[in-house]
Design a protein that fits this description.
The structure is a single chain. A 7-stranded mixed beta sheet has the order 2-1-3-4-5-6-7, sandwiched between helices. It has a 4-stranded parallel beta sheet with strand order 8-11-12-13. It has a two-stranded antiparallel ribbon with strand order 9-10. It is built from 13 helices and 13 strands. It has 351 residues and is α/β, with parallel strands linked by helices. The protein has 2 domains: 161 residues, Rossmann fold (3-Layer(aba) Sandwich), CATH 3.40.50.2300; 162 residues, Alpha-Beta Barrel (TIM Barrel), CATH 3.20.20.70. 36% of the residues are buried. Helix 4 packs parallel to helix 5, helix 9 runs parallel beside helix 10 and helix 10 runs parallel beside helix 11.
């Protein structure tokens, strides 16, 4: 099959800041690129569009679908831009009514059949890396019965069917290398305030974990939001596996900067020590940045991260009002935040 995977724009509605968001902090969409690799492994022809990076919109995507005789379009979006996903699907259906469209992402994971609009043929909810290959096989077989594909929402005789949930991906070390060769790599660059980091160059996103044990009410990564009522442990890729992916991108694509997209890269200090210790040993000419909570760092960890090449850390401050922090269940006090910023200054990291 000919497949086109697309990520709608998230910067279009930022007004005067749209250009800044689009050109200085584009986000490498790992989820779609994992699926691209899995589709290529099954010998499908796969294309990819990042609307922000390529400066295209729904009509451009629809034209490409029509011009290239695409069989299947896959769209992904978070809640703030899900309406753009729907608009894109509607325009594609107007021009190419026979093209199948499948959607996924955090908004689908939370709302499921509530966001299964008529312009969409399928939804994939939950972790998609096992659902996606099964779905492609079933779609290619022309068998209309999708009832045995876990994690799928579909229609039969006009009725919506919600299949049972897909299990969590059992071993994160078996995740594929994301297909960044399909992206316009040179356009993924991060902006830095400190002059010494401004020539960092192109970057790639990377993930070391899935899940989050904390209960922040505003975050889709929170287990309370993502898996309501269930106790789901945070799962880690092995440090060795993460380093192999970094080496691959460095050697094959000459990537020199990596963004850990995890919510808390120092959640498990032993894991962090092993990972960043290995990166110190490898001594590759690469740099890193990532996110964590201010109460999950100390002098020892920050020194190790700096030695490994971490040049920027981000902490969710959220609010200066302790009452607001209590309401949103942030569970980080302001002295921890102040201390985290002192440590960043000590080790030359950009906040």
């Amino acid at each position: 099959m000919k497949i086109l995977l697309a990520m709608p724009t998230w910067t279009e509605d930022l007004g005067m800041f749209s250009k800044i968001g689009r050109t200085r902090n584009p986000q490498v969409p790992l989820g779609l690129l994992y699926l691209a690799t899995l589709a290529e492994e099954k010998s499908h022809s796969v294309g990819f569009v990042d609307c922000d990076v390529e400066k295209v919109g729904p009509y451009d995507i629809a034209k490409r679908v029509e011009d290239e005789n695409v069989d299947l379009v896959g769209l992904s979006a978070t809640s703030p831009i899900y309406h753009k996903l729907v608009k894109t699907a509607e325009i594609i259906k107007e021009r190419c009514p026979d093209v199948k469209i499948v959607a996924g992402g955090d908004h689908v994971n939370i709302y499921k059949k509530e966001v299964f609009y008529d312009c969409l043929d399928f939804l994939i909810y939950g972790e998609a890396e096992e659902t996606w290959p099964e779905f492609l096989d079933k779609l290619e077989s022309s068998d209309p019965d999708f009832s045995r594909v876990d994690g799928l929402i579909w229609r039969s005789d006009g009725k919506t069917k919600v299949n049972k949930p897909r299990r969590l991906f059992p071993d994160l070390d078996n995740l594929p290398i994301p297909a960044i060769h399909l992206t316009q790599q040179e356009k993924y660059k991060m902006s830095f305030a400190l002059p010494k980091y401004r020539k960092t160059g192109k970057y790639v996103s990377i993930m070391m974990t899935r899940g989050c044990p904390f209960k922040c009410t505003f975050c889709s990564e929170s287990n309370d939001v993502k898996y309501p009522g269930a106790k789901v442990p945070v799962r880690f890729r092995s440090p060795e596996n993460i380093v192999r992916e970094i080496e691959h991108h460095f050697k094959v694509h000459n990537v020199r900067h990596f963004f850990f997209m995890d919510s808390n890269i120092t959640l498990n200090k032993n894991h962090a020590r092993k990972l960043f210790g290995l990166l110190v040993e490898k001594n590759m000419p690469v740099t890193f940045e990532g996110w964590t909570r201010a109460n999950l760092v100390n002098d020892e960890i920050m020194e190790l991260l700096a030695k490994a090449g971490v040049i920027r850390m981000s902490f969710g401050i959220e609010s200066g009002d302790p009452e607001i922090m209590r309401i949103i269940k942030k569970e980080v006090n302001h002295e921890d935040i102040r201390n985290a910023f002192r440590l960043m200054e000590k080790y030359g990291m950009e906040p």
